[in-house]
Amino acid sequence: MKREPIKVRESEASIRRGNFDEVVMGYSEAEAVEEAARCIQCKNPTCITGCPVGIDIKKFISCITKKDYSAAFAAIREKNNFPSICGRVCPAEYQCRRACVFTKKGSAFASKEAINIHFLERFAGDYGMNNNIHIPKTSDKMLSKYKVAIVGSGPAGLCCAGELARYGIKVTVFEALQKPGGVLRYGIPPFRMPRDILDFEIDYLKKLGVDFVGNFIIGRTKTLDELLAQGYSAVFLGLGAGIPSFLGIPGENLCNIYSANEFLTRVNLMSAYKFPEYHTPVNIGKKVLVIGGGNTAMDAARSALRMQNITMQTSDTTIIYRRTEVEMPARRLEIEHAREEGVKFKFLMQPVEFLGDNNGFVKKMRCLECRLGEPDSSGRRRPVPVEGSEFDIECDIAVIAVGLKANQILISVTPELKTDKYGDLVVNKETMETSIKGVFAGGDIVGGEGTVIEAMGMAKKAANGILEYLKTDPVNN
Q1: Of 449, 464, 467, 418, residue with least CA distance to 182
Q2: pLDDT digit string (tens) for 436-475?
Q3: Three-state secondary structure along 359-395?
Q4: What's the whole-model pTM score?
Q5: CATH value at residue 385
Q6: What are 33-42's pLDDT values in tens digits?
Q7: Residues 383 and 306 in one domain
């Protein structure tokens, strides 16, 4: 007989909506052991197929039941460099938990009965972090003579750096912003991804010998050719998808309309959430609209609501989405948390125009009602605007969270890099090598906007490709 899942501890919604402290508190030791005991240790564990990096989930959960937490941590680290990070931000309900045998076949996301694999991964990851457990280097004299450059310090760049540094390769990570972390630092709010967790993982990479160079834009500060001329034997491009998409409707250039990318960067990286300690220029109005239905939209809405509570002791933040909640790609947990905190949701609405005042500031958003039609290429039912259904919604801040496109700074000055019709880099799927010999890529710059663990999966494959390249290329030997 299946036992009920152990509910993870969370801070109270009435309290957390007024701060940026972590919401999910994680499992205690007793809770982790009890949840792990629910796992039936399948002969053929389907959950592993749902993990983009192939963690031996059955093995690490078994270790937790035996209270061998060091072994659980080591089992995860065989495939996942950052368990404390992934245990917090991975959309487990669409990946490993969805593939759990306790989830009915064909379900779009995990059932409530599925093992809470992500919370158990977080528990093991935090145990390893709190007890300073590190995976030792694998020394390789032949490889230690090489230098490899990593462009971008998001999840793909950090993962690739760690994989290569373990072999003694001299790795340098070049980051455009002043602090490393990429989307983990500027995109994901601290109430989901505490900065001390991220800083611990970056410090660990530094102990492995990885160098970080900030405020350095490859494609501007130096070209790719200039970088290679500095003696780097290979380069990994983890540039991410940093170019925001917009709606392309009239009035979108009015003041107080942000891309989610800019809004979250101002709040997270520039510490606007610590106002008045940091007087960062980000406007927060009395009525905030966030357009979109993904995790970025949830992060923007929940951040905006907190900023309203901190600065004005009031909140009125609404998410506008053109489909229904069923079709929303955001994590179910994030939708639930947003709703608990007071974020409002309006579905089946499509923005068609922003309206402003005489000073050029947004005041209203005009929308059309929608109905759902036939499924589109994403498999979700297509939103069809209803003719003559126009109506206006008041707002003084609008945040557009409808996706990101590939960063083009380096690509635009390096025509030898082959791209597809979306502007993403074309790579050899087996080695992740680009059209330029010795230059590899992974993460959102290759696959489009994806998850942290998907980016890491590509980075690990690229790291293996780089290792083989260094071993076999006659130029390097």
Answers
A1: 449
A2: 999 999 999 998 888 899 999 999 999 999 999 998 875 6
A3: CCEEEEEEEEEEEEEEECCCCCEEEEECCCCCEEEEC
A4: 0.93
A5: 3.50.50.60
A6: 999 999 999 9
A7: yes
